[in-house]
Every structure is written in C-alpha cells, then in structure tokens.
Amino acid sequence: MIWNEPADAQASNSQLEAKLWDSANNLWANAALKPSEYSPVVLGLIFLRFADVRFATVHAELKPAKGSRRKIGPADYHAAGVLYLPESARFDTLINLPEGAAIGEAINAAMRAIEKENTDLADVLPKTYHILENTTLTQLLKDMKAIPMDRGGDTFGLIYEYFLGKFAMSEGQKGGEFYTPTSLVKLIVEVLEPYHGRILDPACGSGGMFVQSARFVEEHHKNPTAEISVYGQERVTETSRLARLNLAVHGLTGEIRQGNTFYEDLHNCPGKFDFVLANPPFNVSKVDKERLVDDPRYPFGLPKTDNANYLWIQQFYAALNAGGRAGFVMANSASDARSSEQEIRQQLIESGAVDVMIAIGPNFFYTVTLPCALWFLDKGKIGTDREDQVLFIDARHIFRQIDRAHRDFTPAQMEFIANIVRLYRGQAPELTQGSQAKLQEVFGTKLEGNAPSLPPSELKAAEDASSYNASSSSPSGRGGGEGKPASITYSDIPGLCKVASRAEIEAQGWSLNPGRYVGVAKGEELSDADFKAQFEALNEELVVLNAEARELEELIAKNAAEILEQS
C-alpha cells in the first residue's frame, strides 16, 4: 500500500524554533565551537528557562501555613514536582547581570547551585559557559527569554526535542547514537501501549523512549509519575547525562545508569519489566563473548558471528516478565540473518513471544539512509490463540516527505499502523488522529464510532478468556471519547499486512522479513526509490554475510592448523 504525504505547513512553534536555532548557530559561527561543544550549552539554557518557568508558577502559589513559623524550602518545591532554584540560579537574576559581570562564570555557578539543591541532577548540567563571550551569552539568554510562558501544551518539551533532533543532524553519525526520530518512538509506544508499569531501555541514549511513554500516559488521562517507572542504561557518560537532563526537562524522574550493557546488568533485568523500548546500535562488533557465558540475559545462546544484534534482541526478551511487551528498532539484516543467528531467531519464534514485525522505509533517521525494522515481542500472548501467529506489516510506502533526504510519519499514519495491530489483537481502533478514512478505505468496513481500546490489565483478562474483546464497555481512559464499538475487523491486505502462522514462517527459513509475507498489492510496481532501498538493504545483508564468511574461514584455517600439528 502506498500512502505518501507532503511536508505539512509550519507548526505553531516553528517560528520560535527557527529563531532559537538561528541563535544556536551563531554560537557555531562566532565562537568557533563544534556541534558537540555548543549543543550542551544551548540545551542547558533551554533546561534552565524551562525549570525557571515551572519554579515561578509554584513559587507564586506556595505560602507558609497560617500561624506556622516554618519557612518554605527546597523540599516543598520537590513535593510540588518542580526543581528548586536558588536566587542566584533564576533566569531573571542571570539576564539582569550588569554588562561587566563574568556572565559565563555566573551561569556555571547557577548550574552548580541547582545540582546542589536537586540531587537527581548531580553532575548532569553543563558548566562550560565561561568559554563564551559576554555578548554571546547575553544574546542567548535573551533568545531563551523569548520562549513564551503562556503557551499551552508541552512547548518547552517540544522545543527541547526539536533541538535534540537538529543537533543529531548537525553532528552526523555521532548524533544518531543518542537520538531516535520521534515518529518511530511514538509508533513503538502506540503499539506497546505502556499504560502502567516498569519500563526499561538498556540503550537509552537521550531518553526519548521514556519521554514518549510518559506523553502517551498523559494523553490517556493518567499521571505518568504515578503510573510508570523508568530505568535506563547508557554506555556513554555524556549521553547518560543528556538522558537525565531530558527527563528533568519533562518533569520525570528515573534511574539512569552509566555502563556497558553487554557486560553490566545494572538493573538486574531478567524477568523484571513490563515494557522494554529501545533503539540499540546496529551491527556492533568486537563484543567479548567470553565475558557473556552463563549470563541469563542470553537464554538462546551466543551468536557465533561477530555481530551483537542478537545479543540485544535476547536482552530485550529476557528482561520481560510473564506478561511483558517489548518494542525496538533493529537492522533489516537481522530479520533474515543466517547461521547461528537463524538458530536463535527460530528459538525466539518457537517461544511464542514474537508478536508484530513492521518494515520501515529509508531516510527516517537523520544520519543513516538505510531502512530498518520494528520488532515487537509479547510474552502475554504465550498460551493464547495467537501464540503461533505473527503479524507482518510492510510500512515502507507509508511516510511524509519532510525534505529530499528525510521522512517521518504523520499522526494519522502512525495511528493507522498502530490500528492494524489493534485490530489483529481484537481491540477497537483509535480514531483521534485522522486515520478513520484510511481504515475504511483499506479494510472496506464502515466504522461506527471511536470506541476506547482495552488497557493491559483488561487485555490480559480477555486473553484468559481465549480472545480479546473489542466491544468491552469497560472504560480505559483511551483518548477520544465515547461511541459505539467499531465494527471493523482485521483482514490480510496484500502489500500491507499478513498474519502468518509458525508453519508458514518455518517454510520461509524462519525469516521475520515482512516483505516475504505481505506480497505486493495489485497494480503496484517497484519504483526507483524502492529498488534503491531494497538494494541498500541487500548490500547491508551482504556485508554481514561476508563477515560471517571471514569468521568461518578463520575457524577452518585454525582447525586445519591444529590437525596438521597433531599429525
């Protein structure tokens, strides 16, 4: 199925974002800084402005109890869900410093004071403002002051995400290590539906998976701080700090720990989590597998090839509790990988936990043009009618073309793809983002209303009754309103989606590549762009296969040498 959209008209925050980005670029031009040097400076001031607005709101409301002699202190602000800002760290104090003051040193001191009063931010905030001239800092502070205080919604959070994305583009390949495009994260969250529970991201980067999970909970009328708890691990120290800062910008707290996830299980993960969301680095090599022997996070064995994709996949699987769900981004080549990786994939499929596979087209990442796949695991379907089934979705032809080199999904497209999964599970579709017309067009059934779908607790109860009940009248808080249950049901659509049995998957060599199952819609032809994407994916697989071949050659040569020595 082909559904392409042009770039939207400018969003409501676009002029403000552009102005702030111009200010950031002045740092690059006038201070001769690299993006990796000026990004912490800008993000730190966005954070400070955000924290100051929230502090000022609570500051105006907090008053000592009548007759009490106790003074209002940091604990009162923490109880209200905001960071405490000492007088020297407040935005008005900094922006009103006299012209001859050492503004950079004052901002550094402000960051240290904030960390002292808010221990969750210890050693997180940037303190390199002294390298910038007063005129540059004064202009930056003025530009940050321009962020309006009265704009509704998560304005600051959206601007922060915008800057993370822009810095990822500016920094090239390195930037992609910490930032996953928002539309992919949102789609993962929409499919997983993390209403309540413990969420893990063992390759958390800047923490975007946690932010979108919290936003999902908020959109469905719940308090994320009460409903979810987040746990992250990140190898790079600076990036783990960025994740903690990102959580703080969005008013969240979580346990973010720094360490190499392959060797260090800092959250004691096996069997512990309700949800796992991740975008791990693809095709990592040189992992010391001798250090992984007997690690319970790799229950299906260690791959022989020098590629960590199936180490990540097993980590995600092992971390789930009996009803847990995982959603993660993975290299296309992993869906069809041969040899020992195929053996691991077969065991994973035979476990019954593989739930949904979604093929994503090229150019969704800022720094990599290759297509990718979204994997979804669900241990909760083991023992149900869907245990030996996997839903395959080919979404390579669904996208919005932002510019020549970048794509994303519109809200309607994300909702449409997630609704295919909901229909497969027997849930009612979500109809709040404009997907209704496309659902009716594709599945050929008139929708009768916007019925809420079931939260995980009710889904589990429905599973125990052998099937999901889409017409349940139990309220779930799913956003959108009342209405009759939707009458639409799932069906295989050539070129878009297919539910395959375990026997069909075995016949395809245990492949999890959606293209092998969904086929091509009638009348559709392979375009030049499709050919390029397929060629790039095949080339990626060839690189992996060549690496496996070299390993086999080395092993054969080693064994032959040992035999000759013994003879």
From TrEMBL:
It catalyses: a 2'-deoxyadenosine in DNA + S-adenosyl-L-methionine = an N(6)-methyl-2'-deoxyadenosine in DNA + S-adenosyl-L-homocysteine + H(+). GO terms for molecular function: methyltransferase activity. Residues 464-476 have a biased composition (Low complexity). Residues 153-442 form the DNA methylase adenine-specific domain. Its EC number is 2.1.1.72. Keywords: Coiled coil, Methyltransferase, Restriction system, S-adenosyl-L-methionine, Transferase. Residues 16-142 form the N6 adenine-specific DNA methyltransferase N-terminal domain. Residues 535-562 form a coiled coil. PANTHER family: TYPE I RESTRICTION ENZYME HINDI METHYLASE SUBUNIT, TYPE I RESTRICTION ENZYME HINDVIIP M PROTEIN-RELATED. This is site-specific DNA-methyltransferase (adenine-specific).
